[in-house]
Design brief:
Blueprint (H helix, E strand, L loop, with lengths): L1 H6 L5 H24 L3 H8 L6 H15 L19 H17 L3
Helix pairs in contact: 4-5
Length: 107
């Protein structure tokens, strides 16, 4: 409980709920990835997933994060489109986490 409490920033209730939701989602993704290590078929299926056009996902997710953190003016994107060897869900999650951390830990 103490770890969860430390992960939730001291903001409004909506921010706390969103932070808790993100923490739970990250934990579930981590648990799924750990389970995949023991199942070669599912692991191979995950490795075979591809996002055909990554630029739109990257751009959309990055913009959503900076807009939500009132940092829109701080975002500059130069994204070359192409395939990415990851599912669109996980690619979106990676971008969400990277941009959220950039917003949190920069001025």
């Amino acid at each position: 409980r103490a770890q969860i409490a430390n992960q939730i920033p001291d903001h409004s209730n909506v921010d706390r709920v969103e932070s808790l939701e993100r923490l739970v989602e990250n934990f579930l993704i981590h648990a799924q990835l750990e389970l995949l290590r023991t199942d070669p078929q599912k692991s191979a299926a995950l490795k075979g997933q591809m996002t055909a056009s990554a630029a739109r996902i990257i751009s959309d997710k990055a913009r959503q994060q900076v807009d939500g953190n009132r940092r829109t003016a701080d975002l500059t994107l130069a994204v070359a489109d192409g395939p990415a060897p990851v599912s669109h869900h996980y690619l979106g999650k990676i971008v969400d986490e990277l941009v959220l951390n950039a917003c949190k830990f920069s001025k």
